[in-house]
Structures are given as C-alpha cells and as structure tokens.
C-alpha cells in the first residue's frame, strides 16, 4: 500500500512536466524508480536500515564497553533526473537530529560523471565500496584514518577501458561542529587487468593534499576557537564500543596544518574466493609539531554457496551480492587482520605520542536476497602505548547486524 502511494506521488510529479502516466515505466525493489519511456526524466525514492547489537568481553582496564543495540543507519534517499542532469539526496535519521549525507547534482561527460554539492570523496577501495556491500561490520581502521567522509565540494569520476579515476576538491569544514576548517583534494587512479562475471583483479592508489585551518574567532556557544586543528580518534572494537576509543593524533597549536596522504590498494576475486588489501600513510605538520598515521589491512573471503563477489570495473569497486539460490540465499565467511600506527612530537624532537592497534576479525554473512543481509562479526582489538610500554585496551566484540535496503 505504502509503495503504491509513493509511486502515485512520483507519477504526479512527472505529470507536472507534461509526461503522461502511460509513458512511464515503474520498477521497485529496492526503492521505487520511475522512468519516462524516452529516458529524459526519472524519479527515485528508497532507503536503508542497519541495526547493530554488540556484546563485549572486556579487559580490566577502564570501565569497559557496555553491550547495546544501535540504529547504525536509517536513511531515506530521493533522486531523479531531467534533461541530462541528475540530483541525489540522502538523509540520515538514526540520530536525534536529521543529517544530510548526500545532496548533489550531477551530469555525465562522456564516460565520466561530474558532481557538485554535498559529496563523498573517495581515496581508498574500502571507502569506495558502499556500506551495504562492506564485508565486515566495520570498515577498516585505515579507512577511518584517511577518509574525509561527507563534504561540500565537487568530484569528477570516470573510466577509460580498464582504467578508472576520481578527482575531487572539498571543504574540510564540519557540518555539525566548527572544530575543523580548511580544504582538501583527492586523486584516485586504478587499473583492472581482469574482470569477468566470476573473476576480477584490481590495483589502485590515491593521494590527498589537505590544509586544516585555525581560527582566532571564539564560538559563542562553546567558548572555544571555531577551528582547532586536527584530532584523529579510532574505535577498534566497533561503533558501539566507545570505551575502546583511542586518540591517535592531536595537533592544536593555533597554526595551519598541512597534511599529505597516500594509499595503495589491491583486490581480486575468482569464483567463490576473493581478497582485498590496502596500505596508507598520512603526514601532518604545522611547523611546530609533526604527526604520522599509517596502517594496513588484508582479508580473504569465501562463499559457502555457489556465489561470487561482483565487481564493477567502471567504478573500481565491489557491488551488491545477488544470491544464485533464491531459496537459501548466499553464505560468506571472511577473516581480516589490520594494524594502524599513530605518532606525533615536536619537529625534530622526541615523540610525545606513539600508539599501535592490532585487530583480528572473523565474519559470517547471510545474504538472504540482494536487499537483506544478516552479519555476525567477531573482533579482537588490542591497543598499546609504545612510549609507556603498556597496554591501553584489549577487547573482544561480537556484533550482530540486520541490514535492509528498501
């Protein structure tokens, strides 16, 4: 009933443009898509829900992580196209206040797409894969370390033959706070020597240049400077495991901070098997203090059913799993190891921060159909302070997810 109501509203919107209802095609699952018969106009509405629950085996350091349930994502998407231009809007309702995730207009230029608005710059493969298609409950820590997430800016993404590319420029100003300011730019290139319906081989890399600003203006609400340098914090035990949160880098000397990031990636698949690995490094310098973030991860996955991990060579990423057996769905198991390192200190001086994180994860995915997935992720995360020669945290987390794409 709800789908029919939404479809009627979308059809009504198209009729305003002068298109008759008889001249459109309506498709559902996921979402509702309406296309005019000549392809000049379209409209789309859909969304996703990701619900997480987590249990913890904590160490005796600190209060420990508290088991809980969290609405990880509750998003609504609305889009459409007219006369060669498209628009995309995605809102997040999981938190108390609705948040704009995506909001841009785009157009095709040959084999490339140009976007401008609230975009998602891509630097790594793990970031390029949709959160609906990420194999584990959490993206790799390397991704959290390097990725600027949603920003106002512009991007140009395309492919030629077996090569894909992405170039973007963006503002570092946070939408929900004034603690970060500045600008950044990313270039990502890749090559696909092999891609078929059941196999792929992928190599790529990305480079980012960013400048974090510092403002002498005091925020009236917080009493702090509107832009306060850089602070990078990670959650090794997952989003709900906030007691395991660790600060890897924090530079706040009232000066502009220059940041250069580099990432390399490789992945492949053959029938039921696939692998993915990335390495990255970020260097930060404000002329008084220097910082470095580096890390890598690697994982292997295997489908217990007769399925494979689909790859889109035009976008340089992995896409939706479509089970070959509609009755049982697809079952996948995977294992991942990752390590990240953060350090900082005065320029030319001794380190004042030196932190290492090691994480081992195993996951079981049940793709009931292309739009419903159940995830069981078991992760062991250990954080150590090399300067103090002591362990900061050691936690085992069991995360269960229900994922619906509608």
Report on this structure.
- Residues about 1-5 have low confidence and may be disordered.
- The protein is built from 3 helices and 22 strands.
- The strands form 3 sheets. The protein has a 16-stranded antiparallel β-barrel with strand order 3-4-5-6-7-8-9-10-11-14-15-16-19-20-21-22.
- The longest helix has 15 residues, at about 1-15.
- By secondary structure, it is mainly beta.
- The protein folds into 2 domains: about 1-40, no CATH class; about 40-405, Porin (Beta Barrel).
- About 5% of the residues lie in helices and about 60% in strands.
Report the major sheet. 16 strands, antiparallel, barrel
Question: Class by helix and strand content?
Answer: mainly beta
CATH superfamily of the largest domain: Porin
Q: What's the end-to-end separation, in Å?
A: 14 Å
Q: Given the C-alpha coordinates, what overall shape results?
A: globular
Amount of helix: under 10%
In total, the number of strands is 22
Sheet with most strands: strand arrangement: 3-4-5-6-7-8-9-10-11-14-15-16-19-20-21-22
CATH topology heading of the largest domain = Porin
């Amino acid at each position: 009933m709800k789908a029919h109501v939404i479809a009627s509203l979308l059809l009504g919107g198209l009729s305003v443009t002068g298109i008759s209802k008889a001249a459109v095609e309506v498709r559902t699952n996921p979402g509702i898509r309406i296309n005019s018969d000549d392809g000049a106009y379209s409209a789309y509405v859909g969304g996703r829900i990701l619900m997480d629950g987590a249990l913890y085996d904590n160490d005796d350091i600190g209060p420990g992580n508290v088991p809980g349930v969290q609405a990880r994502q509750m998003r609504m998407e609305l889009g459409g196209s007219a006369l060669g231009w498209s628009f995309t809007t995605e809102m997040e309702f999981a938190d108390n206040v609705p948040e704009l995730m995506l909001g841009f207009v785009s157009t095709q230029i040959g084999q490339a797409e140009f976007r401008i608005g609230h975009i998602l710059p891509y630097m790594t493969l793990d970031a390029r894969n949709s959160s609906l298609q990420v194999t584990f409950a959490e993206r790799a820590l390397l991704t959290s370390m390097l990725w600027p997430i949603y920003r106002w800016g512009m991007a140009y993404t395309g492919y030629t033959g077996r090569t894909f590319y992405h170039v973007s420029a963006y503002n570092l100003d946070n939408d929900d706070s004034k603690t970060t300011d500045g600008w950044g730019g990313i270039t990502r290139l890749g090559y696909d020597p092999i891609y078929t319906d059941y196999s792929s081989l992928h190599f790529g890399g990305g480079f980012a240049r960013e400048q974090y600003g510092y403002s002498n203006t005091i925020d009236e609400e917080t009493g702090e400077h509107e832009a306060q340098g850089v602070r990078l914090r990670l959650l090794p035990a997952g989003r709900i495991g906030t007691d395991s949160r660790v600060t890897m880098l924090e530079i706040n000397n009232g000066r502009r901070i220059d940041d250069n990031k580099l990432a390399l990636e490789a992945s492949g698949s053959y029938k039921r098997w696939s692998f993915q690995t990335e390495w990255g490094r970020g260097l930060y310098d404000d002329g008084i203090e220097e910082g470095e973030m580096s890390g890598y991860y690697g994982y292997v996955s295997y489908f217990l059913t007769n399925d494979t991990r689909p790859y889109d060579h035009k976008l340089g990423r992995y896409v939706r799993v479509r089970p070959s057996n509609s009755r049982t769905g697809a079952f996948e198991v995977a294992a991942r190891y990752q390590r990240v390192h953060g350090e900082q200190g005065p320029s030319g001086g001794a380190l004042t921060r030196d932190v290492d994180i090691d994480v081992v994860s195993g996951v079981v995915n049940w793709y009931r159909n292309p739009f419903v997935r159940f995830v069981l992720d078991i992760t062991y995360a250990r954080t150590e302070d090399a300067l103090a020669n002591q362990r900061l945290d050691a936690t085992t987390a069991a995360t269960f997810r229900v994922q619906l794409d509608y």
